[in-house]
Design goal:
Keywords: Heme, Iron, Metal-binding, Transport
Number of strands: 0
CATH class: Mainly Alpha
Organism: Nonomuraea gerenzanensis
Structural class: mainly alpha
Number of helices: 7
CATH superfamily: Globins
Protein name: Hemoglobin-like protein HbO
Mean pLDDT: 92
GO molecular function: heme binding; metal ion binding; oxygen binding
Length: about 160
């Protein structure tokens, strides 16, 4: 498979619609969760859509989060001072992986490894950046995540 023929993770997952289904199902679980629900108690009703925009852009989709929401600086502001704990971070990842199963995101090892890799990396940064006194970079691009070492599975 040539590099030009390799789909983005965004395309492999099913595009915008797949990420919107993912975040809708995910946040229905989040708000009921005793550990992380309180972090989202005053969540904007559009928050799932915005997170879908972020994930879509990260995984190779359109740059809507950057152009419509302000990109990385906007996302960073939502995490500052939240003091996210390691158990909260882990629960967020676990619930999102459960939602990925529920909505039928691809379950091939290559996709799930790349998907989980970003979730681990991104949530660990969010936890670090959310701590009191943290001084993360205020400007950075939205990360663009790819397949890593394993190309997409082709049966």
């Amino acid at each position: 498979m040539t590099d030009e023929a390799v789909p983005t993770l965004y395309a492999w997952a099913g595009g915008t619609e797949a990420f919107e289904r993912l975040t809708e199902v995910f946040y229905r679980s989040v708000v009921k969760d005793d550990l992380i629900g309180p972090l989202f108690a005053h969540m904007d009703p559009e928050h799932p859509k915005y997170v879908a925009m972020w994930l879509s852009e990260v995984f190779g989709g359109p740059d809507r989060y950057t152009t419509e929401r302000g990109g990385y600086p906007h996302m960073l502001r939502h995490h500052l001072g939240k003091a996210i704990t390691e158990p909260q971070r882990r629960r967020w990842v676990n619930l999102l992986m459960d939602a990925a199963d529920e909505v039928g995101l691809p379950d091939d090892p290559e996709f799930r490894a790349a998907f989980a890799g970003y979730l681990e990396w991104g949530t660990r940064l969010a936890r670090l950046n959310s701590q009191p006194g943290a001084t993360p970079p205020q400007e950075a691009p939205v990360p663009h995540w790819g397949w890593g070492v394993a190309p997409p599975y082709q049966p």
